[in-house]
Amino acid sequence: MTSLDNQQKTEYYEYSLKKITPYVIFLCAKRHKLSQKELEVIAIVISGSRFKDIARTDGRSIKTLSAQKRNAYLKIGVSNDVELLHYIYWLSDKAIRVDNVN
């Protein structure tokens, strides 16, 4: 398996974002009792943004962002970005099915 180049990663994240709405991220945060900062970090990871860029604009250190990410992952029960995306996709599909029933 070859690693993705930057263009492929960008295309993948753009495709991913079309399916993952802010509502789904909110559901995840509510379900797992994430803090506001943990919610923001999860959104950063899902968007494909880099902590370095966010730290520069947001005023939080990379270590702080990493700690918030680790805490969110522990609460959600995932151990890496891929597991997070799988979980968010699952939650998204579940939310879509529930919305279609109502």
Short description, anyone?
By secondary structure, this protein is mainly α.
Protein described:
With 102 residues, this protein is an all-alpha fold. The protein has a single domain, classed as Winged helix-like DNA-binding domain superfamily/Winged helix DNA-binding domain (Arc Repressor Mutant, subunit A). Helix content is 78%, strand content 0%. It contains six helices and no strands. It has helices spanning 6-19, 22-31, 36-47, 51-58, 62-76, 81-101. The longest helix has 21 residues, at 81-101. The protein starts with 5 loop residues before the first helix and ends with a helix.
Give the arrangement of secondary structure elements.
Blueprint (H helix, E strand, L loop, with lengths): L5 H14 L2 H10 L4 H12 L3 H8 L3 H15 L4 H21 L1
Attribute tags:
102 residues; mainly alpha; Arc Repressor Mutant, subunit A; globular; DNA binding
Contiguous helical run count = 6
Low-confidence stretches: none
CATH topology, which one?
Answer: Arc Repressor Mutant, subunit A
Q: Give the number of DSSP strands.
A: 0
Quaternary assembly: single chain
Specify Rg, calculated over alpha carbons: 14 Å
